[in-house]
Amino acid sequence: MTRGRMDGDGIIGTARLELVPLAEAHAEEMAGVLADPALHAFTGGSPYPVQELRARYARLVAGSPDPAQTWLNWVVRLRADGRLAGTVQATLTAEPDGPDGTPLRRAEVAWVIGSPWQGRGIATEAARALTDRLREQGVAEIRAHVHPDHHASAAVARAAGLSPTAHRQDGEIRWAWTAAG
């Protein structure tokens, strides 16, 4: 693993989508995709103006300042028309609690799809592609945190192979998948 990258973290293709590594140049189109304040109903905050989103993307592309973390970010592009529809992301960590003291790779994942594209299975398709890639790359545990009232996001987590746990963080339910079961 190198800073900000993971082996094979280029474009991830599905039947309808391409997950394209995030670039600062995506900020202008993504500002429109993420402009609906309703997207922040469960997470808080408000939409970023283009310049702030560009600065945020620059920080994400530069990678985590913590050498124990790797940030992976993609925009979700629709194959049919080439438009961007959202993002998926993973934060990877390696913790020394695997068998024989070897590092156990974990990923915290998230997704957001713009309001005009919701209800079409795009979040599910993108999240599945992301979690499948992480599993292929040997990630042993995948987690997501979902607000208990965000039923659509819970359905995406379930479709990506995650299950709800008893753990709560900041009022959200931890969903998880582990290689061991």
Description of the structure:
The chain has 181 residues and is α+β, with helices and mostly antiparallel strands. The chain has a domain at 12-22 and 66-178: Aminopeptidase (3-Layer(aba) Sandwich), CATH 3.40.630.30. The protein is 24% helix and 33% strand. It has an eight-stranded mixed β-sheet with strand order 1-2-3-4-5-6-8-7, with helices on both faces. Strand 7 and strand 8 (172-178) form a beta hairpin. The protein is globular, with a radius of gyration of 16 Å. It starts with 11 loop residues before the first strand and ends with a strand. The model is unreliable at 1-7 (pLDDT under 50).
Kindly state the number of beta strands: 8
Our measurement of the CA-to-CA distance between the termini, rounded to an integer number of angstroms, reads 24 Å
Task: Give the CATH topology of one domain.
Answer: Aminopeptidase
| Fraction of residues in helix | 10-25%
Unreliable runs: 1-7
How would a textbook summarize the main sheet? Answer: 8 strands, mixed
Give the number of helices: 4
Order of helices and strands: EEHHEEEHEHEE
**Mind telling me the CATH superfamily name of one domain?**
Gcn5-related N-acetyltransferase (GNAT)
- β-strand amount: 25-35%
The CATH architecture assignment of one domain turns out to be: 3-Layer(aba) Sandwich
- Walk across the major sheet and give the strand order: 1-2-3-4-5-6-8-7
